[in-house]
Amino acid sequence: MDTIYSFKIYNSTSSLPLEWNSLAIDNIFLTREYLEILEKSSPTNMICHFIGLFHKEDLVGIALSQFLNLNQLESFGNRDKCIKTAVRNTVFKNFISHILIIGNNMLTGQNAFAFAETIDPIQGLKTLKKASEKLKIIFKNKGLKVHITTFKDFATEETTAFHQAGFQKHFQYCTQPNMLFDIPNQWKSEQDYIEALSKKYRDQYKRARKKAEGIEKRKMHLDDIIKHEVTIYDLYYHVAKNAHFNTFFLAKNHFRIFKELLKDKFLFYGYFLDERLIGFNTLIKNGNVMDTYFLGYDESIQREKMLYLNMLYDMVAYSINKGFKEIIFARTALEIKSSIGAKPQEMYGFAKHSNPVADMVFEKAFNYLEPKVDWKERNPFK
């Protein structure tokens, strides 16, 4: 007989069960503290809910949902201005502008849920599916019809449980891979990384470092982030709006709130030229894994100084020096991340359109609308 689980949906972190964090030990992105960041500074077109799964009175699962209203976006992304983009944007606005995500659209990887060891994972997924149906009703009562429900970012080995939990009629899709950088145990410093590179990529490293002469990298604290908040947002927004496609833009206070709530687990590095902030990157410590987060830069200086590549090298160096096991470089800029040693991991999602007719053509529409990125995988090591 199936174990029966119940669920509760919360719209505030203040009402979460006291034992919530005991299930988020392995993932900072499901902790009360991180969810409070979303509560206080999520994108303006995003509404978050938190889901608790229960066996009788015991909390046995936690999950995050995000509702995105794409109609509230002023721009989907400016890079590829063409007929296809215009068509894509029109279709998104009218047919798939209201998206309910079980997971986190601001990150790459399985940040959707965490189950206790005692839970039956198949029954847990079935219960989450029921919770997603309940959320659709909640939004319908607010006058917002959910077009698409999606469970996102699962590795190949994680997809089997979904098939067993009744997701066969969902469209299983695969988007751009997650770029992962594994750090060998024997590497103790940046020098170990440099020595592992082949001559071609060691030369690339030296050239990038030489180009960046004159730029000062500074670890920025909360008061620094507040002081430079306007410039930080401008640098971020420049990079974000030139992406192929966007489903959100960060709130202006996002990095300040992040630093206030996650403190030393959130790292913010500014890059200065003649005392002017010209770029920044951010890192999040997640156990023995380092997650890269958003960055920004002045495009004119970026090109001349190879700033983005230098940021990637800095992230690798810091993570090795501090004993991390892996760096999650996420999506975008796949080839340049590959050139420093990151490897692609395919990620899958499960999606269903609430309109049965639209659902029949959803797969074709998705394949047409999802930007395909041609890139060549590199291997920089000897």
What does this structure look like?
The chain is an alpha+beta fold and 382 residues long. The protein has 2 domains: 6-175 and 347-369, Aminopeptidase; 179-345, Aminopeptidase (3-Layer(aba) Sandwich), CATH 3.40.630. Helix content is 36%, strand content 25%. It is built from 13 helices and 15 strands. The strands form 2 sheets. Strands 1, 2, 3, 4, 5, 6, 7 and 15 form an 8-stranded mixed β-sheet that branches. A hairpin with a 2-residue loop joins strand 11 (276-286) and strand 12 (289-297). Helix 1 (32-41) runs antiparallel to helix 9 (254-262) and helix 6 packs across helix 11. The radius of gyration is 21 Å and the shape is globular.
Brief overview:
The protein has 382 residues and is α+β, with helices and mostly antiparallel strands. It has helices at residues 32-41, 83-95, 121-140, 159-164, 190-196, 199-211, 222-227, 229-241, 254-262, 299-305, 307-321, 334-339, 356-369; strands spanning 6-10, 46-55, 58-69, 98-102, 113-115, 148-154, 171-174, 178-182, 216-219, 266-273, 276-286, 289-297, 326-330, 343-345, 348-353. The chain is 36% helix and 25% strand.
